Amino acid sequence: MTAETMDERIRRAEVLVEAxxxxxxxxxxxxxxxxxxxxxxxxxxxPVLQDIVLxxxxxxxxxxxxxxxxxxxxxxxxxxxxxxxxxxxxVTDAQTMxxxxxxxxxxxxxxxxxxxxxxxxxxxxxxxxxxxxxxxxPRPPEAGEDLGFVGDVAxxxxxxxxxxxxxxxxxxxxxxxxxxxxxxYNVNADSVAAELAVALRASKLxxxxxxxxxxxxxxxLISELDPARARRLVAAGTISGGMIPKVLxxxxxxxxGGAAHIIDGRVPHSLLLELLTESGVGTMIRDATDDDxxxx
Length: 296
Known about the structure:
It contains ten helices and 14 strands. By secondary structure, the chain is an alpha/beta fold. Strands 5-8-2-1-11-13-14-12 form an eight-stranded mixed sheet, sandwiched between helices.
């Protein structure tokens, strides 16, 4: 056991006390956490899973949504396949769809479930095909090119996820949907998380990525912004590239009545720092009319 001074022990207690108002506010509420492949690529997801397990133990109802883009690309490379994107969307033929299912439901999801179990939590993995939870429509061509089996969420059936939550378990959801034609479709994980946040009336959507949040034209981190300013930043090109779908997902999640956060998933315990401290560590997007001082 390492020796601690009394000041260090007091500081530990102060950290817990600081979190108390936020734990009280969010107890019993659903939060959707999206963990992108880029956020943990080459890193260790355990700090994120520790945060999620802790949230479950203090009374929140976390739902974990995961992608796995870098892992899918790696498997495509191993199999000698070309990886192609159009406007940031992976062109998904039948073979790529099989790889996506294998990676998301056969590797990434089970590894996250096992990690939660090692930390003392209880989790169940599923994809949008199960239930089915996510019914999707094929996405129209982008830039004149057919994307193949890429879908947009058309309908959410929250019952399978709510059942898992009611059992005290953590749903771990892979971003695959079931088409009305019975075909599996690759779906953007940010969009999946946003649609689930709306359907579950989640108080929070937290998008964990590989940057620290949204920046203004001068490069400074924006700690909080409303939907109108977010749209202006997109129109001006200040928000661009891969950040656009995350901001659009955040704006969609606001329609469910909660708030959305974009934070750096590579920073240890960034999830707790954003949710359970006054200052936070990323960017929060919420309606300008929401003036609740504890909506951190």
